[in-house]
């Protein structure tokens, strides 16, 4: 029973993931940005990049000389919003397989069950990290953060 349900959820999840990634690629193309483009922050020294990201995330003043870089980063980050949704779909797909792995008595299934849980926890942490940047980017583009 769980195998059929898990398989159906996984198939639907794969279809949803493909749709999300195609829509994200189209959004990038419409915006004139390469799909796998480097972040706008890559050219900055790491100390400056850390200070800038801290200011963006906390809604603090973004220095005037870095305002252009911050806006380019925010624009790219908002275009990446499909990453958040695809990670949620991936988590659902992983959870759907847990009952099947738990019901099996083979040693390899037990290892796969615990590995699945560890990867799921990692995906939740990654989702929180990406979602935090999504909110900060949206706030910066709305102009809610304090100007320099």
Automatic annotation (TrEMBL):
| TM stretches of this protein | 7-25, 82-102, 108-131
List UniProt keywords, sorted A-Z.
Membrane, Transmembrane, Transmembrane helix
Could you name the domain of life of the organism this protein comes from? Bacteria
Identify this protein by name: Uncharacterized protein
Q: What is the lineage of its organism?
A: Bacteria, Bacillati, Actinomycetota, Actinomycetes, Pseudonocardiales
């Amino acid at each position: 029973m769980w195998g059929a349900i898990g398989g159906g959820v996984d198939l639907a999840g794969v279809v949803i993931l493909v749709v999300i990634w195609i829509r994200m690629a189209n959004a990038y193309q419409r915006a004139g940005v390469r799909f796998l483009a480097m972040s706008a922050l890559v050219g900055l020294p790491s100390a400056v990049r850390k200070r800038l990201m801290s200011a963006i995330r906390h809604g603090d003043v973004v220095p005037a000389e870095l305002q252009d870089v911050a806006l380019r980063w925010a624009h790219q980050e908002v275009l990446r919003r499909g990453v958040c949704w695809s990670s949620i779909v991936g988590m659902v797909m992983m959870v759907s397989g847990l009952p099947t792995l738990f019901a099996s008595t083979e040693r390899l299934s037990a290892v796969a069950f615990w590995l699945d849980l560890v990867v799921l926890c990692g995906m939740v942490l990654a989702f929180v990290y990406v979602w935090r940047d999504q909110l900060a980017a949206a706030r910066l583009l709305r102009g809610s953060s304090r100007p320099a």
